[in-house]
Amino acid sequence: MQAARGTPLNHSGGSAREPQHRSGRLYLGLFATIALLAFAIDVVSKLIAVNTLSGRAPVQVVGEYLQLDVVYNPGAAFSLGTSYTEVLTGIAICAAVVVLWVARRLRSTGWAIGLGFLLGGVLGNLSDRVFRSPGPLRGHVIDFLMFPHFPVFNVADICINIAAATIIVQALRGVRVDGTRHEEAGAPTEATGS
Predict the structure, then answer these.
(1) 69 is catalytic
(2) From CA 28, how far away is CA 109, in angstroms rounded?
(3) Of 35, 58, 118, 178, which sits most exposed with the smallest number of CB within 10 A?
(4) Is residue 80 part of a domain?
């Protein structure tokens, strides 16, 4: 039985396109869950770091290999661009909007994970820029994780790096955001959902 010429019905009597909409919601749900958890963990970890580490000498967790020390960073990663805090805030806002825009087409678990971590990390550092001193859009990001000979970083930075690695893997696998694979020119693509 068919609803219209060329549109097969599924077992419940609806169009076969309905499960795709439902599965799209599942990918969006995974994306949103990861983004919210990443953001929440980053915010809570920064609150704990500020409340327990401010005014103290670095706390050794694993000898000198991992220490905790609160640093207020006006710049980007590796303390670059410390004079361009407002510009960095604008870039972070644009990045969050682009991620949300792209996420509308999610049909891939890998991309949902990658974009979720990316949004959570971007929002974590953006919230510092917006709400922390010296003022809105000029706030300094809280960093507190320290390895030897490496810039101090935070949970949001970890999330952004996980996102980058996941997105690179998806690109190397040839999986697009919508779950289709890059095929040879002119060949049809099919959804993979991975």
Answers:
(1) no
(2) 9
(3) 58
(4) yes
Residue 185 belongs to a domain: no
Q: Supply the range of the domain harboring residue 70.
A: 23-173
Q: Is residue 69 part of a domain?
A: yes
87-146: per-residue pLDDT in tens? 889 999 999 999 999 999 999 999 999 999 999 999 999 999 999 998 888 899 999 999
Question: What single letter denotes the amino acid at residue 18?
Answer: E
Q: Which residues pair with 67 in a beta bridge?
A: 60, 146
Query: 42, 69, 128, 143: which is the annotated catalytic residue?
Result: 143
Contacts of residue 54, defined as CB under 8 A and 6 or more positions apart, other chains included, come to: 70
Structure confidence at residue 177 (pLDDT): 95
Question: How are the residues of the chain apportioned to helix, strand and coil, as percentages rounded to the nearest 5?
Answer: 50, 15, 35
Between CA 80 and CA 65 the distance in angstroms is: 23
Q: Contact 104/137 with Cβ under 8 angstroms?
A: no
Number of domains present in the structure of the chain: 1
Q: What length is written for the chain?
A: 194
Q: Would residue 42 show up in a list of annotated catalytic residues for this protein?
A: no
Quick check: is 153 in a domain? yes
Round to whole Å and give the CA distance between 96 and 29. 17
Predicted confidence (pLDDT) per residue in 129-188, tens digit: 999 998 888 899 999 999 998 889 999 999 999 999 999 999 999 999 999 997 633 455
